[in-house]
Amino acid sequence: MTVPRRPEAPEPTAETVAITSGRRAVYLVVLVLLPGLLLALAVPAAWGWGIGPRDVVIAAVMYLISIFGIAIGYHRLFTHRAFKCRRPLRIVLMLAGGMAVEGPVTLWTAEHRRHHKYADREGDPHSPWRYGESGPALLRGMAHAHVSWFYTARRRSNLRHWVPDLMADPDVRRFDAAYPFVVVLSFALPTLAGGLWSMSWAGAWTALFWGGLVRYAVVHHVTWSVNSIAHTLGDRPFRTRDRSSNVRWVALLTLGEGWHNWHHVEPTCARHGVLKGQLDPSARLIHWFEQANWAYDVHWPDPDRLAARRRDRM
Ligand SMILES: [Zn+2]
Ligand SMILES: [Zn+2]
């Protein structure tokens, strides 16, 4: 007699895995030391030699590509599935996000999905409230949420647990495998643009410095401000279980991501700046993609949901 086999339950996967010391060293250099050093170097360079209009244009274009790539690609599309889009646009958005040098899309997404699940509670990889609410504890917490967690964390999000959807996507797997080349491209593109524009080696070098290196450092600190500043300062017009907040200058620099309060109410919403006067260029661009039929099934905010979650209308 044969006993009918019960369908096997899927193996539970751990939420986090240990980080090797080699990987921690890479995080320390690429995510903490190098951006800090470059920002420190940029000050005397700007003071001493200045920055010409050519490098301003190249750096600004690279900045917009990187920040839009993170906001629209890595964050709203890949992490939260706020919209669907055609394959060429998906690949372009993934590449643009890669220009920010903030890691492969799978790892970025895994850490961010874990942040949303545990926001400002035990298990959040980067809550500024981790050490308490007193002044010194909060300052320490903000440093932790900004960059310290990159090298103090002993565990990172397990890709198999958090991003099985992305791991099953052949385009994402190819992108992750090619990630070191994407990083090279992030510096090669501005260098090439500066060299060809000026037809000189000096032009290539200054474009590498401003449009490549300094831009990468600025993009990092601007992105991490959402984790450190937009979970502490600012206002909270909506009711959430966490301390996510809206900070106008962070929203301006991140092209909409600093309107972080509504984002924690409804992470799948394609628009973060949902109130009057809250400029959200990333949402505007998604709207243009939708009009061009490149993006579809876009989750736009629902006025009834907005009203229901307002603090002043309880
Ligand atoms: Zn958050
Ligand atoms: Zn998010």
From TrEMBL:
Recorded GO CC terms: membrane
Keyword field: Fatty acid metabolism, Iron, Lipid metabolism, Membrane, Oxidoreductase, Transmembrane, Transmembrane helix
A GO MF term: oxidoreductase activity, acting on paired donors, with oxidation of a pair of donors resulting in the reduction of molecular oxygen to two molecules of water
Domain of life from the UniProt record: Bacteria
Claim: DNA repair is one of the keywords in the record: no
Keyword Lipoprotein: no
Main location: membrane
InterPro entries, A to Z: Acyl-CoA_DS, FA_desaturase_dom
Compartments it resides in: Membrane
Listed Pfam families: FA_desaturase (PF00487)
Transmembrane segments: 25-50, 56-77, 89-110, 177-197
Residue span, Fatty acid desaturase domain: 58-271
GO BP terms, alphabetized: fatty acid metabolic process
Membrane topology classification: Multi-pass membrane protein
Similarity field: Belongs to the fatty acid desaturase type 2 family.
PANTHER family assigned to the protein according to its UniProt record, in alphabetical order: ACYL-COA DESATURASE, BLL4393 PROTEIN
Protein name per the record: Stearoyl-CoA 9-desaturase
Native source organism of the sequence: Sinosporangium siamense
